[in-house]
Amino acid sequence: MNGQEKKKQHKGGRSPKVNPAVHRYVFRLTDEENAKFLTLFEASGADNKAQFVTSVLFQKPIKSVKVDMAAMDYYTRLTSLFAQFRAVGVNYNQVVKILYRNFSEKKAAAYLFKLEKQTAEMAKLCREIMELTAEFEAKYLIKSKEK
Question: Is residue 47 within 8 Å of residue 31, measured between CB atoms?
Fold first, then answer.
């Protein structure tokens, strides 16, 4: 058995690349240059530094992802608040059923009147939140998309 036949029998391992990168270059950076390089690399979203360097050298487009943490935090809290509103809605339905089941019609109506007042306040608060969200989006999110 010669060497070529042995290689044909072996089926494990990684397939060889069609066009392997075999040429290697080394360069050195100062601390400031390295900090700037790492910042650009992280913003690019490239998988590895070699891929990033070659894309910069050959002027391939580099993706840059910027995350607005304030907007992200706002929407996280808004989502949490929305979940609480839904929970209040479920509890509201349960309270109405319990009132009619355990109290007389007159007493249940008196409690429901108080509950309606609180619900109206909560609806007003919800409208204010929607207005603030629209204002936030107009001021911060749409401007950042235009840049």
Answer: no
